[in-house]
Amino acid sequence: MDFRKRRKTAGLLAFCLFFLNCGEKSSKSAEVLHQVTEEHLEAVLFNEVSLEDKFWKPRLKIQADTLVPFALDKTMPAVENLEKTAKFLKGDTTDLPFPHRYIASDLYKVMEGAALSLMENPNKELEKRLDGIIDIIGNAQQEDGYLYEAHITGVSKDHDHWGGGGMGDKPYSYVLHSHELYNMGHMYEAAIAYYRSTGKDTWLKIAEKNAQHINKVFFLGDSNYNDGKPVNQAPGHQELEIALVKLNHATGKQLYLDMAKKFLDIRGKTFIPEGEGVMAPTYAQQHLPVSEQTTAVGHAVRAAYMYAAMADVGALTNNKEYDHALNSIWQNIVDTRMHITGGLGAIHGIEGFGAEYELPNKEAYNETCAAVGNVLFNHRMFLEHRDAKYMDVAEVALFNNSLAGMNLNGNRFFYVNPLESDGTTPFNQGKAGRAPWFGTACCPSNLARLLPQVSGMMYAHTDDDIYVTLYASNHTEIALKDGKVNLHQTSNYPFEGNVTLELNPEKKQEFTLRLRIPTWAQDKFVPGLLYSYTEPNKQGFSLKVNGKSEPIIMEKGFATINRTWAPKDLVELKLPMPVKFNQAIEQVQADRNRIAVTRGPLVYCAEGVDNSGSVQRFFIDQLPTSQSMQTETMSDGLMNNITEISLPVKSNEGNMVMEEKMTLIPYYAWNNRGDSSMIVWFPKDIKKP
């Protein structure tokens, strides 16, 4: 069978859970999945949506041609560590790996991105390279399934981190920070992606061998570990839980779903750390059982991965025990703890959530990985609840904070994403701008695996409903109960809000088309209480079918059209994109008496390179009129096809107030033309120098 053409036959929970039906299912697993299919939306997989747009399609080319090979080269030290571990297991102790807790995870994420790109762009040379690395991984794995280079070779004793040995002195002795389970989670995801792309199961078998080892050691007891007693402790850094759900999908084995739920359910029960900072019980969300947590706390990436896993497991087991916690946490994030860019985890040190409304600009952390986690969490929540507000948050986090993490060439990166910079002060792991790589390279490797899957967030469906959730020129085919529907979408989103959909069902058939009407096109930029437009949005959206206006019937953020559709039916959605000004709730001290500029789903910023010097000199004491503002499509080099905004402002330099024109670009595109100042939130009155 051609695995590149194998299609899904059961429901999915999220775009990143596209691995369903890669193997035979046990009857018990099939029964569970059947229940899910009837009750939940099915995402249209990314490899079943062909992009034709000017925004995402070029990024996929950059991902395949630049980011993947570049990142694979950068992660070669992890390959060398694995190779030295394999030699050690064969008796060669002359050249041991250097001690590191999580470098392997960066390699696995890049390999996942490479595997995903193979699905759309077969590349024998790349496939051969991955096969070679997979052989090394297999040789570095112990016979019992354990795979962690530092403990296998004993070099962990040389790694002193936080004064207590960041790995522990033997396997699973320091689960809180060792990343043993985190690394394996990313390996599972990559192995499944490679299996899905190529049909080769060598790596999948390595992953299963490790998962069965972990189940034995953590929940049954293994005489070779922890004195034979079950470790019974949740991962310090969450991720394994998501991967186990995917492994359940890929193999149909109930064991892996059961393991994911066990790891969630013991968190905050069997082990609660004591201390402050990275040793605090809140840091890895271990302060309470997950079903009792109601606010977002601790390390933001760990938190977002855990929330995503809770949504997965709750849906697959048809269990509502996590619902109250997830709904409360989501509301807490959008009401008190999220930057307007969709960034999470504003606080340095813990890389995580601070107090409610603690959302600094220059000092904001907003790790790129946390924004990716925000996308994963919200897409799952949408598929669970069928409410557009979750996709509104996912979209903002995707277009703004996530995309800002990589330059337009695909070879320089942000780990940290502040909302203001003077252009000289370091904020990005010792740099004032983008870096070619990081010692901790989770962010660029995360983008390598996210970008190919974005088209998997564009559509979802039930037996007789089609949900259009993100807009971009593309075509796809969706199988409904009464027949297949070919759908062709045309749009220059996110820079223009006109969307045309041509529907071609196999035959005339009745179904409901649901088009997401973003929050930004209504009363505020993003859901939640944190941000609002300074003036009411007066430009409403409109909808036509075959040239005739269609009455707007809204359900959970979707404009719904139920009718009998015929071939070549044409739907036109118009989402006006005026420049909008935003204000933050009074409790956000950093944004008091300031405004931010948005257009459509994009946050805009001013950058020094466009404005002849420091942009901190600008202030906006009165809102510009629509007649005084201009939007223009840029045509220069990297900035080609990007819409810029110019508007009148005042500046203050040397106590001299002047009237000027200020140019703004999308936040995701800043720092692509050298290091210069940048600002998102503009003062409303004069600032003394």
Layout of secondary structure:
Layout: H1 27-39, E1 42-43, E2 49-51, H2 56-74, H3 76-89, H4 103-120, H5 124-140, H6 149-153, H7 180-198, H8 202-220, H9 240-251, H10 254-266, E3 298-299, H11 300-316, H12 323-337, E4 352-353, H13 368-385, H14 388-404, E5 420-421, H15 442-450, E6 459-461, E7 465-468, E8 474-480, E9 483-491, E10 498-505, E11 509-516, E12 531-533, E13 542-545, E14 548-549, E15 554-555, E16 558-565, E17 569-574, E18 579-584, E19 594-599, E20 602-607, E21 618-619, E22 630-633, E23 643-653, E24 656-666, E25 678-679, E26 681-683
Parallel strand pairs: 7-11
Antiparallel strand pairs: 1-6, 2-8, 3-4, 5-25, 6-7, 8-9, 9-10, 10-17, 11-16, 12-18, 13-14, 13-17, 15-16, 18-19, 19-20, 19-26, 20-24, 20-25, 21-23, 22-23, 23-24
Helix pairs in contact: 2-4, 3-4, 3-5, 4-7, 4-15, 7-8, 7-9, 9-10, 10-11, 11-13, 13-14
Structural write-up:
This protein is an alpha+beta fold and 689 residues long. The protein has three domains: 27-457, Glycosyltransferase (Alpha/alpha barrel), CATH 1.50.10; 459-516 and 541-574, Maltose phosphorylase, domain 3, CATH 2.60.420; 590-683, no CATH class. Strands 5, 12, 18, 19, 20, 21, 22, 23, 24, 25 and 26 form an eleven-stranded antiparallel β-sheet that branches. Strands 2-8-9-10-17-13-14 form a seven-stranded antiparallel β-sheet, with no helix packed on it. Helix 3 (76-89) crosses helix 4 (103-120) and helix 11 (300-316) runs parallel beside helix 13. The longest helix is centred in the N-terminal third of the chain and has 19 residues, at 56-74.
